Amino acid sequence: MSVNAYPSERGLTVYFTDITEERKQAIQIEEKNKNLREIAWMLSHEFRKPVATILGLVQLFDPAADGETKKLVKGINQAAEELDKIIKDADSKTQSEELL
Prior knowledge:
By secondary structure, the protein is of the alpha+beta class.
């Protein structure tokens, strides 16, 4: 219940407002924000971990490998770097955006 009081010519005017629905919506928004924070944490920690591992393993390939192996390693590295960038961008947006 919300109460507002205003002075008037005859004394005091008081308005009562039922804010039950607004409060329910605020609770739903808080729950959604909690879920978004959990997703952001997963992006920045859980998803990046295997990507970082792939990027590290690619560096271990022999630079003297044959042409086909070099192409394969280059493709794996590019895909992992692209995925890493997507994860970093998503994480950055969740960190910089003010949650409702």
